[in-house]
Write a structure and sequence with these properties.
The chain has a single domain, classed as Glycogen Phosphorylase B (Rossmann fold, 3-Layer(aba) Sandwich), CATH 3.40.50. The protein is 32% helix and 24% strand. Strand 1, helix 1 and strand 2 form a beta-alpha-beta unit. The longest helix is centred in the middle third of the chain and has 19 residues. The model has no long low-confidence stretch (mean pLDDT 89). InterPro entries: Starch_synth_cat_dom. It catalyses: [(1->4)-alpha-D-glucosyl](n) + ADP-alpha-D-glucose = [(1->4)-alpha-D-glucosyl](n+1) + ADP + H(+).
């Protein structure tokens, strides 16, 4: 049997970003998948906080050179890669870079703790850039596992703007919901900025709640399954999980990698059974 392909898309990962629920979870999950005979690709933003020399990033010229349109503006996409060893397993981590969005020396907030005004643009750029990069790979993932609110548009894009793309036709999308006030990061014009490929603001209605952006809600609606990634979540996010009409896995910490593998298998077996 050929190895199952798992695409991990994350807004954070150790050792490239500081230790938080998302970064530590992804850091443990990725090598575990490889050790369990799964083929993986990890994609994340190349924040200005990441030291390229220390982590030995270098540009992948064959993947770079695309332009991603956000809010009617073109932004060049540069792809970089680093090799991350882990107990005999060597992982390739790909970084999406753009000087306008990721050059700054902070991740999602400025030096005063205020969310960046262009976080909506950065999210749309990153999510569309991920999909276009995987198309360049020519690598059809069996599982697409999205970690964090900055990846929340990927389920939507794949099920709408890219629904006829053969590379993703059999992909199962898993969204990990972590405790974060995603709406605090995103301006009210989110739906307009996130509209691509002839999509309209109305198409993004699932990402709005009571007139404000609700990224987790939209992601869950378009995903095939959801994982509760944080032990503690707020009332709104708990309600989203309780109302979800898709499989939900409640697992965190050291049990998460093994449980995720079994969760993937159940989703793929369910597809075969149809």
């Amino acid at each position: 049997m050929s190895k199952k392909k798992v695409l991990i898309v994350t807004q954070e990962m150790e050792p490239y970003t500081i230790a938080k629920d998302i970064s530590t979870t992804v850091r443990a999950l990725a090598p575990h998948l490889q050790k369990n005979q799964m083929e993986i690709r990890v994609l994340m933003p190349r924040y200005g906080t990441i030291n390229e020399r220390r982590h030995r990033l270098h540009e992948v010229v064959r993947l770079s050179g695309m332009n991603i349109i956000v809010d009617d503006n073109d932004f060049p996409l540069i792809i970089k890669v680093a090799s991350l060893p882990d107990k005999g397993v060597r992982m390739q981590v790909y970084f999406l870079d753009n000087e306008d969005f990721f050059k700054r020396k902070f991740v999602h907030h400025d030096k005063d703790g205020k969310p960046f005004d262009d976080n909506a643009d950065r999210t749309a750029f990153f999510c569309k850039g991920v999909i276009e990069t995987v198309k360049k790979f020519g690598w059809p993932p069996d599982i697409i596992h999205c970690h964090g609110w900055m990846t929340s548009l990927i389920p939507f894009y794949l099920r709408t703007a890219y629904q006829t793309e053969p590379l993703f036709k059999d992909s199962k999308i898993v969204y990990s919901l972590y405790q974060s006030e995603a709406e605090e990061h995103i301006d009210p014009e989110f739906a307009l900025k996130a509209s691509i490929n002839a999509l309209a603001e109305e198409d993004l209605a699932p990402y709005m709640h009571e007139g404000k952006p609700d990224l987790h809600a939209g992601a869950i609606q378009f995903a095939d399954a959801v994982i509760k990634g944080s032990v503690e979540i707020n009332e709104r996010n708990a309600a989203l999980l309780a109302a979800a009409e898709i499989p939900v896995l409640d697992v965190q910490g050291e049990d998460a990698p093994a449980a995720s593998v079994e969760f993937y298998k159940s989703l793929l077996e369910e597809e075969v059974a149809k």
